Amino acid sequence: MKPRIHPVSRPVVFRDRAADVAFLTRSTADSAQRVEWEDGNTYPVIDVETSSASHPFYTGRSRVLDTAGRVERFERRYGTAAAARN
Prior knowledge:
Subunit structure: Part of the 50S ribosomal subunit.
Helix content: 25-40%
InterPro entries: Ribosomal_bL28/bL31-like_sf, Ribosomal_bL31, Ribosomal_bL31_B, Ribosomal_bL31_sf
Protein name: Large ribosomal subunit protein bL31B
Distance between the termini: 60 Å
Number of domains: 1
Number of helices: 2
Shape: elongated
Largest sheet: 4 strands, mixed
Low-confidence stretches: none
Order of helices and strands: EEEEHH
Family: Belongs to the bacterial ribosomal protein bL31 family. Type B subfamily.
Strand content: 25-35%
């Protein structure tokens, strides 16, 4: 790698407020807020809205949308007007 062109990577704590979970990883992001981690060191903390701990895809709480019903409702509303214009 070329020297002096890559951003500095440092340990950062990402905190998911929705799931009340925090995890330590490396990132180029920085924050003025600090938090003391389990190892006794203080790290910058970045609050996120969604992580793998709270995202429906990863937790298995996702909903299946009724797309067939939506298409039928769209065709009932707009299908006759669109066919009349053609």
